[in-house]
Amino acid sequence: MRRPALLAFAAALVLIGAWPARTSPGVQSSGNSSSATDSEMDKKLASIAGEAMTDAKPYQYLEELSDDIGGRVTGSAQAAAAIVWGTEKMKAIGLENVHTETFEMSRGWTRISANADVVSPIHHRLTLSSLGWVGSTPQGGAEGDIMTVNMYQLADEMSSNSAKWAGKILLVVRKGDAPPPQERRALFAKFGPFLKAAYDAHAIAVIGGQGGSKSQGMNITHTGVLGFDTSYDIPVVSLTDEDQEQIERLIDRGKTVRIKMNVQNRFTDGPVQSANVIGEIRGTQNPEQIVVVGGHLDSWDLAEGSTDNGMGTTTTLGAAEAIVKSGAKPRRTLRFVLFTGEEQGLLGSLAYTKLHKDEMTSHVAAVILDNGQGPVNEFNLGGRADLISAAKDFAKKLMSFGEIAVNDDVEFGTDTGSFCLVGLPGINLGQDSPDYKYTHHSEADTYDKVKPDILARDTTVMALTAFWIADREERLASPWPPEKTAHMLIEKHQDSMLKAFGLWPFGNLGSEPEKKQ
Ligand SMILES: [Zn+2]
Q1: 98 alpha carbon to ligand 1 midpoint, in Å?
Q2: Domain stops at, among 233, 267, 301
Q3: 403-416 burial by CB neighbour count: b if 16+ within 10 A, else e?
Q4: Given 13, 90, 116, 122, which is the most exposed site by the fewest CB atoms within 10 A?
């Protein structure tokens, strides 16, 4: 997959179009013929690609964000420092209208400590971390026997077994047949009611990761939240896969496993404020039409948040910088946004679409990168099947970066989800990131996991994609009406998950077969 950056760079220029230095000063666009317009666009794209592939700044930005600021939990001092840092970077790059837009989340949260030991039938120190926005054990910890809870039968577990949960530490396991893929998000949504039931039943704690998921191995844990702007009073911890496997083996052999656990976290008394960071390159012909380009500035705190989502932050800054330096001007406005609150449930992007509600009809698309450290290999068009053909044509221009597949998948695991909800193409730049399963929300999410050539390549793909949308002669897209969006989300099996998380704004819309216009 990986190729030397300069090779890719040279190939990109050949495929995209003319080398900028070869541009003949006498060539003028007539503005009437689409091939002349295409070639004008290709020249601009080539010069943006040249800037993006030869600029090492995004990798420097990533080092500053990772090593100088570090983990950036929304509402924390580090997140505030990152907001100042992002604002300064956007100003230094030369973006226009650089500002922050504040929003409120219901509570702030700080991790303090998490320790646990198996005390019987063996003695063994466990490696674990607390999930975010969950509670604490009593000071000094608590001791209890492990009781397993089958994630695949949560409803049964709650109705049949919750009377036995008092004083127990509940270990989430998976036994029997897994539900089909389209029901997995709904399973995530059922985890919250289970955590409430466990708290009400006086269980000590729950061992189970984000949405009841297991750790990925390599002796690391994965933190995360368990809903959208939601907190839980019961402590919930992520245990390493290695430790969990051992406990499950002991239980399978009929042994009673007893654990002492001490988890301490702190909630704020009331709401906390955060902010998105925004800067623009104003459009020359339709400045009122807006293409959002972004990633999220916040991260988890077990490490540096370099892959999630230092990548998206620095590709966004790098894309902006490449376009500014190329001198190419888009017809429409490119609005670069570093969201915060993503990790607590897309809070920054949801706040953005709310704040800019009246301006949404002028929005064209949102391009988001948030799938780890790998090369972009997919455009997920957020349910907008009507754009597949245009996006495929564009993806051909990027062939020298490897094949980019195009589909209309909807992604609610990134800020694209907020834009899909308002009928816009929330375009997820899907990445081939096999190691992301280890770095995701873990102690291993550090600067060294990002390769500079991949960062440069992804910065380039993001810059070109954003500019292509903003500078096309024809507007790529307009928001769909709510009924059409609701219908699409139902067809994509997103409705039950969105309803369970309280994110479904459509009432009964979309349940009827779509009317032919
Ligand atoms: Zn992320």
Answers
A1: 23
A2: 267
A3: ebebebbbbbebbb
A4: 122
Take residue 137 and report the two structure tokens written for it.
């054990």
Token digits for 482?
A: 């709510």
- 359 lies in which domain range? 5-106+272-381+417-483+487-491
Looking at the structure, tell me whether residues 93 and 232 fall in a common domain.
Answer: no
- Give pLDDT < 50 ranges for the chain: 1-32, 516-517
Q: Are 349 and 339 in contact (CB under 8 A)?
A: yes
Closest CA to 370 of 380, 357, 355, 356: 380
- 513 Cα–ligand 1 center, Å: 35
Domain shared by 90 and 128, yes or no: no
Query: What is the reported pLDDT for 179?
Result: 85
* Cα 213 versus chain centre, distance: 17
Q: Are residues 97 and 30 in the same domain?
A: yes
Reading the block at residue 118, the tokens are 């198996």
In this structure, the answer to whether residues 131 and 248 fall within a common structural domain is yes
pTM of model > 0.85: yes
The Cα 313–Cα 61 span in angstroms is 9
Chain position carrying tokens 């998976």: 174
What residues are paired with 366 via a beta bridge? 292, 426
Cα(174) to centroid of ligand 1, in Å?
Answer: 25
For the record, the structure tokens of 133 come out as 């926005």
Contact at 8 Å (CB) between 191 and 226? yes
CB atoms closer than 10 angstroms to residue 160 = 10
Residue 513, pLDDT score:
62
Quote the ligand 1 centre to 310 CA distance (angstroms).
9
Q: How many Å lie between the centroid of ligand 1 and the Cα of residue 289? A: 27
- Counting the structural domains of the chain, the total is 2
Count CB atoms within 10 A of the CB of residue 269: 7
DSSP conformational letter for 307: I
| Residue 185 near residue 494, CB atoms below 8 Å | yes
For residue 452, how far is its CA from the centre of ligand 1 (angstroms)? 19
Cα 225 to Cα 12: distance, rounded to the nearest angstrom: 40
Is residue 47 situated within a structural domain?
yes
How far, in Å, CA of 433 to CA of 473, rounded? 34
